[in-house]
Design goal:
Layout lengths: L1 H6 L4 E4 L3 H15 L19 H9 L4 E4 L5 H12 L5 E4 L2 H5 L6 E4 L3 E4 L2 E4 L2 H8 L12 E4 L4 H12 L15 H12 L4 H9 L2 H6 L3 H13 L3 E3 L5 E3 L1 H8 L4 H9 L1 H4 L6 H10 L11 H11 L15 H11 L4 H8 L3 H21 L11 H9 L6 H4 L6 H9 L5 H5 L3 H7 L5 H15 L4
Parallel strand pairs: 1-3, 1-4, 2-3, 4-7
Antiparallel strand pairs: 5-6, 8-9
Length: 461
């Protein structure tokens, strides 16, 4: 099937139900695609600080004219795959359905390997809307007059079923997902924008939403949200009988974090003040926050590992809540303790792309914490160390070195092990000596980090 399409000069997108299946299909199809590949053996690849089995496998497949694509890949590799496919060098991409909705990447032929997807822990058929989205990738504008979508069936019964349900079926009606998010976040944002808002004004706004049109008024969620925001100091009743935001509520709304994320931080404030390096308790708060994305589903063995860890790190218990994702906590904990991306992949199943998105999400929430800190009497400078450790994935001893631009976890550790333990020692170093004895440093980079270290210390350059 794929061979005949490639022989006619086409390209294929193959949609698989899981990331693992996408990789397996790419490997299997490489025996077909290699004779059509236009990717040179000397193809250059992104310079990620750490290499993993996922990126190594992908690099072995790309010269064979096939690749896999999913959110677990580093963004730089996803872009490379997309660009090579657009240039007609890679002939086949095996992907999870995210590629159908998120990237404009059409092909002559789309193959849907299975109509089933895993939704949390259940295996269920895809919706008609999802089928139409994937099928819509078939047919390249300006290149192909037609597009083909092939849905694999196991017998004649499935053929008839798939034709009726998917090929001839009408997409499902769009339904509002408003209540998937905490309504209190939206109520707080609305009051902050309006300045003053009565209950009637708030209700009037929500009555115009798609959810209200489909399901009726949101009186109960609105009243519960107002009660929550009021009792926890996010909103106040003004003399005119309308609600207004408190300084806490106004800042929370402007930081784009949920009131519950802000509240969990505020409540942990007194305990946080006891920590010289609050990185680990902050990770506990992050793993419980509804703003954390992705917030990984925990497995039984993750919960056991967290329990064992707490027997040693027992000071962290006050910062953990029932909403804590054990796997998210363990991934961040491993990251700031310099576990490699491969270790995190092998032990926790956290792929590099997921880890990157977690770090970006964590950085924003920690920034919000630093802004909220003044309300509870904590200096925003207290969050500089956690921010560096979370962003760069380093232990405390090399955090100052990792704060320099162009210095990631490996280079920071290499500097430390070579005898440059802090910015002062680095500022007094010899650039030629660093370039000759520290792995990963050119003379240009050595001069740059020495200059930046001196600037950070306020020394003359």
């Amino acid at each position: 099937m794929v061979y005949s399409e490639l022989k006619e000069g086409g390209q294929c997108l193959v949609f698989a139900e899981t990331r693992k299946k996408a990789l397996e299909l790419a490997k299997n199809l490489s025996t077909v695609t290699k004779r059509f590949s236009q990717v040179p053996l000397e193809q250059s690849y992104p310079e990620e600080e750490e290499d993993t089995s996922i990126t190594r496998t992908l690099r072995s497949l790309i010269p064979l004219g096939v690749a896999f694509h999913h959110a677990g890949l580093p963004a730089s590799y996803r872009r490379l795959v997309e660009n090579l496919f657009r240039d007609n060098r890679i002939k086949v991409i095996c992907s999870t359905p995210t590629l159908a909705a998120g990237v404009n990447l059409p092909a002559r032929t789309v193959i849907i390997n299975s109509i089933y997807r895993f939704n949390e822990d259940r295996r269920e058929p895809i919706k008609v809307m999802e089928y139409k989205q994937m099928a819509g990738r078939a047919g390249r504008p300006k290149y192909d007059k037609i597009g083909k979508c092939i849905l694999l069936a196991q017998d004649e019964y499935q053929v008839d079923l798939y034709l009726d349900r998917y090929a001839r079926g009408e997409p499902e009606s769009i339904s509002s997902k408003l209540l998937l998010k905490d309504v209190s976040t939206m109520v707080l944002a609305l009051i902050s924008i309006l300045g003053y808002a009565s209950y009637e004004k708030i209700k009037e706004f929500f009555d115009r939403t798609l959810y209200a049109k489909q399901n009726g008024p949101l009186d109960v969620p609105i009243r519960e949200s107002i009660e929550f925001l009021s009792s926890n100091g996010f909103i106040l009743m003004a003399k005119n009988g309308k609600y207004r935001t408190s300084p806490l509520g106004d800042l929370t709304a402007k930081l784009y974090v949920s009131p519950r994320t802000a509240l969990s931080f505020i409540r942990a404030g007194e305990e946080l003040k006891k920590w010289d390096d609050p990185t680990l308790p902050i990770i506990c708060l992050l793993a419980s926050s509804e703003d954390m994305d992705p917030k990984l589903a925990s497995r039984r063995k993750d919960e056991v590992e967290l329990y064992q860890l707490l027997s040693v790190e027992y000071e962290l218990e006050p910062f953990l809540s029932d909403d804590c994702s054990s796997r998210t906590f363990l991934a961040l904990y491993g990251w700031v303790n310099e576990q490699s991306e491969q270790e995190l992949l092998d032990r926790l199943g956290v792929e590099p792309g997921d880890m990157y998105r977690m770090i970006e999400s964590a950085r924003w929430i920690v920034y919000a914490y630093s802004r909220l800190a003044r309300i509870i009497g904590i200096s925003s400078e207290s969050f500089e160390l956690p921010m560096i450790r979370i962003q760069k994935g380093v232990r405390k001893d090399v955090a100052s070195l990792a704060s320099l631009s162009g210095i990631g976890r490996r280079r920071a550790r290499a500097l430390y092990e070579a005898g440059y333990h802090n910015l002062l020692e680095l500022s007094q170093a010899n650039d030629v000596e660093i370039a000759s004895k520290v792995k990963g440093f050119s003379l240009v980079l050595a001069r740059k980090v020495i200059r930046e270290a001196r600037e950070k210390l306020g020394l003359e350059t």
